[in-house]
Amino acid sequence: MVSIIPCDLHVHPDYSIDAGSSIKEYCVKARQIGLQTIGFSTHYDVNPARGAKDAFMVVDGEKTRVSDYTLERYIKDCREAQNLFPDLKILIGLEIDYFPGIETEVKRLRSDFSFDYFIGSVHCLDGIAMTSKNVVGDYLSSHSISEMADQYFELLFNVADCGLFDVIGHADYYLLPGLRYYGDDILNIHNDRLDRIVRAAIRTLTGFEINTSYLRKGGGDFYPRIEFLKTAIELGAKINSVGSDSHHTSHLGANINKSLNIIREYGIVFKPFYEND
Ligand SMILES: [Zn+2]
Ligand SMILES: [Zn+2]
Fold first, then answer.
1. Is 89 contained in some domain?
2. CA of residue 43 to ligand 2 center, whole Å
3. Which of 141, 164, 180, 207 pairs as cysteine with 106 (C-beta 3.0–4.6 A)?
4. pLDDT tens, residue by residue, 56-79
5. CATH number (domain holding residue 100)
6. Which domain holds residue 116?
């Protein structure tokens, strides 16, 4: 018997330039694995500091500059899938790469489109993607650990403070490059920096995500790490999203139930953002 997976709310369909499965393929897979709610969160990366090199979506197999047209096509595809898969709850979201100044655009997206949710994620420092191994060293080797931490957490504060995002994506995204460059000291940088972020998140009703992709990559923990989460929870944070960060159907639902069981053991409550009081 297939066990039930309540939700996977961080899923990149092939509208994202780095993803390899279509919305319909994900829906078929969702049925097979017992997933009840799937939240699509295609990338929305328009940071001008990146020379807009990420600002593309794939529509009809063509790499296309992000525009209202690409967003409308994405939404339409999700809606069509909802009609084809009525037993599956489909949520339409975006994972927005946060940079200072994007707030105006997020306000416009909120008012002009009917998205169900927005994940705000910090991927870049000084326009350098923390996952691009080739160049992240340029940033990290020219910044002390406290300079890097201050800059990252300032961006994370903005995500929580602006009130435009429903979810803070993978809140310790700096972890892997940080471990490589700064060693274990990186594991503690959140301790004296989370307080004002959590206070802002409480005020704006923004929740934290549990992103299970670190487990998929053999990391033995999730993003953010359980120690980070425990600190955030003690300060009053809410966990309102869980997602696999799938870029292919083979990732869908991976480690979701395992993660929910682990946080339950720590007494951490998970209430997805789509469940209203
Ligand atoms: Zn992300
Ligand atoms: Zn993602």
1. yes
2. 7
3. 164
4. 999 999 999 999 999 999 999 999
5. 3.20.20.140
6. 5-265
CA of 146 to the centre of ligand 2 (A): 26
Question: Does 277 fall in a domain?
Answer: no
Going from the C-alpha of 95 to that of each of 16, 60, 113, 253, the distances in angstroms are 10, 21, 15, 17
How far apart are the C-alpha atoms of 77 and 81, rounded to whole Å?
6
Residue 180 CA to residue 177 CA, distance in Å, equals 5
Give the global pTM.
0.96
Does residue 272 form part of some domain?
no
Say which ligand is closest to the CA of 97.
1
Taking the chain, what is the end-to-end CA distance rounded to the nearest angstrom?
A: 32
Total structural domains within the chain = 1
Any domain includes 17:
yes
Ligand 2 centroid from CA 243, angstroms: 9
Long-range contacts of 55-61 (CB under 8 A, 24+ apart): 56/17, 57/15, 57/16, 57/17, 58/14, 58/15, 58/16, 58/17, 59/15
Question: Which structure tokens are listed for 163?
Answer: 């009130």
